């Protein structure tokens, strides 16, 4: 995975011009990828208001399965999410399921990814809390801060990580980058209930970063790797996110048990969050063998999701990741002076 530091040309996205009727949580510029300013004149009896439009970049690199490297606050704070960097995904039962990455090398150390400020774990299952990967990371960087679901405590407690914070849904923690002093807040929200054995919900997260410098502006990423969420929790708390990362293609076991949701559920999640970008994750895309492969099916396509989203939220942009190739998503702010 050393190629992540020198990938193919990055993919850069800016938002399309918004409708005057849309009111996202953070207003964004209508111009291309650069800072700009414009003057907005109010009603005749009022004074002139000058609006300066500034931007920050959210950089996302997909590492296959559920793994991501996020670079927030213009790259000043780096988050490694649900990584699988060592070997295959087999849940300890390769005869049942054995999945290999299709694009990236199956072995890669943290040093290949550069400095990381936070390790974020959503679930206790092996496709999120991968024991071989975490064992290697803990040996290389025991002081790496970790934020995780309490469901992962039996796994993480056995590893030599020095700084682990367990968050129940509704709890949050704030972290500061060791080198850059950039600040992020991680809020846990309810995710799926996995099993067997059945237990408390796993975590989804809203990760909010404040831009470094004068006038700190906030931007946020919401991550839910199964597209299973508590709509009431999000609605009651008025949670918003500029970037939504979630699957859009459903995965089902025996055509009746939903492993991963998507499609119309992903559209509703984008609506609830007021997302400017949806980044679909294709976490079922791998070279797999084993008994489970015969009874897992998919429903829907990314294009079908695009069509659904275009009807419901025409201004929300879908940005598909390519493993190992960074996406640069530009989040804009309007500062009224």
List the helices and strands and how they pair.
Elements: E1 11-13, E2 36-40, E3 49-62, E4 68-72, E5 77-81, E6 98-100, E7 118-121, H1 131-140, E8 146-148, H2 153-156, E9 164-166, E10 172-176, E11 183-190, E12 203-210, E13 218-223, H3 231-236, E14 243-246, E15 250-253, E16 257-260, H4 264-273, E17 277-280, E18 287-289, E19 296-299, H5 302-312, E20 317-318, E21 327-336
Parallel strand pairs: 1-21, 5-7, 7-8, 8-9, 13-14, 14-17, 17-20
Antiparallel strand pairs: 2-3, 3-4, 3-21, 4-5, 6-18, 10-11, 11-12, 12-13, 15-16, 15-19
Biased composition (Low complexity): 32-51
Region (Disordered): 14-51
Protein name: Metallo-beta-lactamase domain-containing protein
Report the end-to-end length measured between terminal Cα atoms: 46 Å
Write down the domain tally. Answer: 1
The first-level CATH class is given as Alpha Beta
| Fourth CATH level, the homologous superfamily | Ribonuclease Z/Hydroxyacylglutathione hydrolase-like
Rg estimate, integer Å: 20 Å
Query: Which structural class should the secondary elements be placed in?
Result: mainly beta
Mean pLDDT: 82
How many helices? The count is 5
- Percent strand: 25-35%
The profile of the biggest β sheet is: 9 strands, mixed
Written as H for each helix and E for each strand, in order along the chain, the element string is EEEEEEEHEHEEEEEHEEEHEEEHEE
Multimerization status: single chain
**CATH topology call:** Metallo-beta-lactamase, Chain A
Number of strands: 21
Residue share in helix: 10-25%
Shape, per Cα inertia axes: globular
Gross CATH architecture:
4-Layer Sandwich
| Low-pLDDT residue intervals, each spanning 5 or more residues | 1-9, 15-51
InterPro entries: RibonucZ/Hydroxyglut_hydro
Protein name: Metallo-beta-lactamase domain-containing protein
Organism: Hordeum vulgare subsp. vulgare
Biased composition (Basic residues): 20-31
């Amino acid at each position: 995975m050393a190629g992540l530091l020198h990938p193919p040309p990055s993919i850069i996205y800016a938002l399309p011009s918004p409708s005057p009727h849309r009111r996202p949580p953070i207003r964004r510029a209508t111009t291309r990828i650069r800072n700009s300013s414009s003057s907005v004149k109010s009603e005749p009896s009022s004074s002139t208001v000058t609006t300066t439009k500034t931007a920050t970049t959210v950089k996302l690199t997909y590492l296959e399965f559920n793994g991501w490297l996020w670079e927030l606050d213009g790259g000043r704070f780096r988050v490694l999410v649900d990584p699988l960097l060592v070997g295959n995904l087999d849940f300890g039962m390769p005869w049942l399921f054995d999945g290999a990455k299709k694009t990236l090398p199956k072995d890669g150390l943290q040093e290949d990814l550069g400095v990381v400020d936070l390790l974020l774990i959503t679930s206790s299952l092996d496709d999120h809390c991968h024991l071989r990967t975490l064992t290697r990371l803990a040996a290389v960087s025991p002081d790496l801060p970790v934020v995780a679901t309490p469901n992962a405590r039996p796994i993480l407690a056995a590893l030599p990580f020095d700084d682990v914070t367990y968050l129940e849904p509704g709890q949050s923690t704030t972290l500061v980058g060791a080198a850059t002093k950039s600040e992020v807040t991680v809020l846990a929200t309810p995710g799926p209930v996995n099993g067997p054995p059945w237990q408390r919900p796993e975590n989804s997260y809203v990760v909010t970063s404040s831009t470094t410098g004068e006038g700190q502006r906030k931007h946020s990423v919401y991550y839910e790797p199964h597209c299973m969420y508590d709509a009431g929790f999000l609605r009651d708390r008025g949670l918003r996110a500029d970037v939504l990362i979630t699957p859009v293609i459903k995965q089902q076991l025996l055509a009746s048990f939903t492993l991963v949701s998507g499609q119309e559920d992903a559209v509703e999640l984008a609506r609830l969050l007021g997302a400017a970008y949806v980044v679909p994750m294709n976490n079922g895309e791998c070279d797999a063998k084993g008994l489970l492969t015969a009874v897992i099916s998919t429903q829907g396509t990314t294009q079908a999701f695009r069509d659904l989203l275009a009807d419901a939220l025409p201004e929300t942009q879908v940005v598909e990741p390519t493993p190992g190739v960074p996406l640069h998503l530009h989040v804009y702010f309007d500062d009224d002076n």
